[in-house]
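Journal club side-thread
Mid-discussion, someone asked how the predicted structure for our own chain would compare to the paper's figures. Pasting it here so we can look after the session.
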Amino acid sequence: MSDSSQSISPLNSVRIKIIGLGGAGSNMVSRLELDAFETITKIAVNTDAQALNNLKCDQKVLLGASITRGLGTGGELEIGKEVVEAEHNAIAALVEDVELIILVVGLGGGTGSALTTKIAELASKTDALTLAFATLPFSFEGSRRKHIADECLGILRNQVHGLIPLPNDVLLQEGEEGASVLNAFAVADNWVERGVCSICTLLLKNGLINQDFGSLRSVFQGQGGKTLFGIGFAEGDNYVDAALDDLFLCPLLHTQDRPAKLDRILVHLIVSPDLSLSRINEIMAIASKRLSTREDIIFGAVIDPSRKQSLEVCVLGKSEIERAVDTSTSAIDGNQLIAQAVQIPENSNTATVAQFPVPVHHSKLKPKSRDKGEGQDEFVFNQLEEQRGYFEKTDRNEYEGEDLDVPTYLRRGIKINLK
């Protein structure tokens, strides 16, 4: 017989650190409203003493005072790296005694870009699950900042369990037509807050259908790869259909960085008490169809009694195949990958293919043989995941400081009305 007087530890007591790095990341973390979650620590890390003083965080960490004299790095990545090397012990202390680390950073500058790759590297050596939200510069900020951001993004991807890029060009589409850059930054803040709150609600609130830290770990099983992240919200009449429409129009589900296929996804709902079980079943059926996965869908739901006719849907997913490809590139060089993929003889000259460091599937290079008399095969477009694979890591098409691989309406800041 169980002892009813025995104390029971909380169902979810996951220790979570949300760490804002650099000016942009620290500001975003400061604005997060997370008072309802007791086991979360908000930390701001920066080289700018004045900027830190104005923030609302549980912990503020000033780095590199002897190098920057309490000022910022001026966007200089090399100064940021110098600070990182000098403050190794202080940075390492940030990832101790924690189970989930959520990094928030604006890439393209000096402090945040240097700090995030270092802290992610140190976190990868612990047992902590590490997720990162990283905003990317506007196209009009110039090729230098974009180059720094792309370089750091590539490093960061292989260090964390889940990386969620937030391109400012894309987020600008969420604002009103003619909205200012400050409005676009506010949109980025909103996406980070919604994502962080949904993850924390999943882990720390008892729900109609509970999921826990193990569920989150099952989605993000290893470092590397591409992450799917999207949120939809609606309230009022017809709120279920409106929330699903909002989810599938989420700009983060339509960036070039999203994984082509998913092995496992987590769908988490925050619902009002008036939502019926049959509607929840309908939501999951639609999500399963629209967000196809090779294995399974993990589902959780929390009822918020303060809401009425309201639904928020958060989707997180990851591709194991893309993770395997990404992590394998660190073990052998590009020529070896190409040689393995197309079976180039050892005495062949591989100089002409050295520029393509991504393995190309043999079937793409060798046409299928057909028997005589067989009719012509029907022409079929490549699958989505194959369209960019051959050129995945080739140089971008840049002209006069503009990346021509970015659609014109994004480079020019033109809003396209989708809703």
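Post-session note: The first strand starts at residue 16 and ends at 21.
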